[in-house]
Here is the input.
Amino acid sequence: MSMSFDRYMKDMIQPMRDELTSLGIKELRTPEEVETHLLDAPGTTLVVVNSVCGCAAGQCRPGVSLALQNDLVPDNLFTVFAGQDKEATAKAREYFAPYPPSSPSIAVLKDGELVHFIERHQIEDRSAQEIAEDLAEAFDRVCR
Here is the structure.
């Protein structure tokens, strides 16, 4: 029995995608989708740069899930998948300047401008609860 690499990756990655989309977070899979949804996006926007790494699984995605239980949450919820949807991720990262590429990472934008950013090094050494608290504080500050 032979399985293509692409099929294998799709099967392995899909649960990681589903973990965020099941929360109501919309996947942006192309640069055009990123531009359509992020360019001058009104209100507040969360963008999660998803990844296959352990800190994405153990801290980032669970932290985002917990943060979205906050009373105030962003108007728009999006995700791109680093290493999978490479062009979409590169386009999304243009909105995160001056921060260098980081996977996973979490951005909060207000009216298209970056107002809060959590880099990989701020994810890998913290718990999901600590990440959620960081995001909830950002949501409380900018989602009014």
About this structure: The mean pLDDT is 95. The longest helix spans residues 5-21.
